[in-house]
Amino acid sequence: MPPRVAIVGSTASGKSAVAMAVAERMHDVDLVSIDSMQVYRGMDIGTAKPTADEQRRVRHHCIDLVDASEEFTVAEFKPQVESALRSIAAADRRALLVGGTGLYHRVVIDDFDLPGQYPDVRADLEQESSTEALHARLAELDPPAAAKMEPGNRRRVVRALEVTIGSGRAFSSFGPGVDAYPPTPVAQIAIRRPREVIAARVEQRVHRMIAAGLVDEVASLYDAGMSRTALQALGYKEIVSAIRGEIDQDEAIDMIITRTRQFAVRQERWFRRDPRVRWIDVEHDPVAEVAPVVIAALEESTV
To answer: Positions of the site: Interaction with substrate tRNA (predicted)?
Structure first.
């Protein structure tokens, strides 16, 4: 597969608008979504998924892969995106990666060696209530992995133990992880805007989603059954809490805005740690200011 280009950055920064503009100007570019929640069919409004019209105008890949009732992980995403990239290359077209899910992005550009899933082992580990005890067990089985994790980070500790026990291979042996930044053929272009601008855009976006029918979308999906992974989506889990009567709808909307703003800050920090990323500080219009940079990178990638 040829070298590729990626547009990254926080939510509400303008990545999708830039990607659409680039694809429509170049005519031989397909967009590949690197988003952990756009993979779910029916989760359209709350994930800011490309509209039907946008999908008619530009070819999109790696959206609507599974029903919202199904579990889906980064390990399952990797072969899907690899297949998409092969098909794009076979059609003599260029791929533009776009999205803000940091781990999914790294798995694609750095070709991570991903460990499998061992649900029986995980279920057994979850019986232990003390995360510190689990961390101590990990320290015995895989000291390098334990040294990189906070003893109280239950999700990471359980996952490392699950892999170590289930595969018979130390979790740390699957590669250097997200803290290493090896050379990559993918040009990463990040959109950066002032945090107060992102905060305002997030609030506007959430209110647009509510007006567009987000509550009804979530209610329909919830009635049909949503998987554990789908229920982690911002906007969806808060509306589900309102549906369950745990909070009222106004509280849910406020929580969506607050949590999305916090998520945007975490996204920027994630990409900021990567020294390979080229940052573009946008003053006014991300399309006008970033699209030419992306186009130039795509043209250079085919030289």
So the answer is: 101, 122
